[in-house]
Amino acid sequence: MITRRAVLAGAVVAAGTRAARADDPAFFRILTGATSGIYFPIGGLIASAISGPVGDQPCRKGGPCGVAGLMGLPEVSTGSVANVAALAAGKAESAFVQSDVAYWSYTGTGIFKGQSKVETLRAIANLYTETIHLVAHKGAGIRSVRDLRGKRVSLDEAGSGTLPDARLVLAAYGLSEKDLQAEYLPFQRAADKFRDRSIDAFFRVSGWPESVIADLASTMGIELVPIAGAEAAKLVGSSVYLVANNVPAGIYQGVPEVATIGVEALWITTQAQPDDLIYKITTALWDPAARRLLDSGPAKGREIRLPSALMGVGIPLHPGAERFYKEKGLIK
């Protein structure tokens, strides 16, 4: 299994040797999220899957089955909103982005209303569903979203995908940030303050099981607050990117099955990337060798499946990816 330390070390070495020799591989960066989340380890696995280092044996002889001469490089980031900004500025080749953030940025709606549309964005694949977690202390009396009124709640930091979704959820239940003692903390900082009871609850958009939340559940106990009912149904029904979602019983210790909502985690790029390159990268992503890598990591990696590759994709596919999906019969 690829560890965070190993991926980080590899990224540092790779970054430090860019363009050192004429035969060095081309780098294809994947902006992910914080090391404490799921984006980063999944990014490491996918980076390995698409890599085909110069000089290695070919795939059919036991070598990597990625793109010859390419090195995938996962990079830590603040999250979806920051990742879109980096792609728009040409600072990376690809990124993981929540489906709602991708849609808003491409259409100039939602949190991007009044800003220039990022119409260069193109999708490679949907990866898996991310859950909107609302985590509260046991015994804090927070059993619904409306119970957050007057409570100390972290909505996550600017640049994250969690912050706009937390605002959407609050608004759906008739609340705003002014109704709370709102804080805007990076996820790990929010978890630390939750542990020392300096906040009552926090939002987190992530695939489950989220390791930090799992640790809180096992060491001090948590409540996972439902995001359900008519308000949630209306929210899902009025969007092209939100989906109903359940966290199964036992995913977090002592927590029963909880109804909530979620978004899709997309791997996106821009139209500036060559069609043939993205075709080869998409082919590598769905190669059986990549399947073995994805199955070896976080649970969400096992949900990355070809039949769901186009679910929740609200922006255009990159032509290279589209070519692959047409060949596989996913697009007629």
Automatic annotation (TrEMBL):
It comes from the Bacteria. Signal peptide: none annotated. InterPro entries: TRAP_TAXI. Gene3D superfamilies: Periplasmic binding protein-like II (3.40.190.10). NCBIfam families: TRAP_TAXI. This is TRAP transporter solute receptor, TAXI family. It comes from Enhydrobacter aerosaccus. The lineage of its organism: Bacteria, Pseudomonadati, Pseudomonadota, Alphaproteobacteria, Hyphomicrobiales.
